[in-house]
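Entry type: protein chain
Record version: 2
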Amino acid sequence: MVRLLGIILNLGLIGVLFVLIDDWGMPKHSTQIALVVLMVATPLFNLAFLSGLAGRNGEKGLFGLYLERKSLEERQKIADLKK
């Protein structure tokens, strides 16, 4: 339920940002452009993690599995160096 609410709110935020950009136009100054990119990128990353990169109900998602694999690879390298 909370996951669905997060997805809906992030999609709503992206929609509002695009409507504002459409009404006011793209900003002209580099600092304003950076803020707009940040304001669009943040909910996109949130959506990526909410939709499947993060695990559900205690299971590991793609990102968690990737980190675990990297950790095991490093442990294996250390064990090989100790031999």
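Comment: The radius of gyration is 19 Å.
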